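Record 1 of the preview.
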Amino acid sequence: MVYQPSDDDRASVEGWFAQYDALAEQGAIEQLADLAVFPMNVVTDVPGGHAAVKQWSRREYVEAMKEAMGGGTAGLGLTSVRTPRFLSPNLVVVETDATMTIEGREEHMRYADLLVRTEEGWAFQTMIQGGWGHGWPPARRG
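->
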């Protein structure tokens, strides 16, 4: 059976992303980590290779985001269009098409997050985006 989210369900996910975006803009990496469940699954690919998968601790997430975000996303002209796909009342995969302007040129990216509903509200548990796997070992079956 396909779960049909209510307006409140959709609004709660939109509210979570509004909070996430505000923290990202400020570069508040520790507070972003507070919005996650660890260990966090990170799925990407190795350029010219295959998929790569890791589980990050909170410390590993914070280190990676400090490197990726620096002082935050403010000033990047970041716009995001998000499409939530509810699997159940407590699981939602959110696909994001984002555009940011860096030094006058537009960069486009697409990624997805798995959000899980916890007692404290939504939290992200899996991040999926191509191109992060430089130096990562390729995924192996079994």
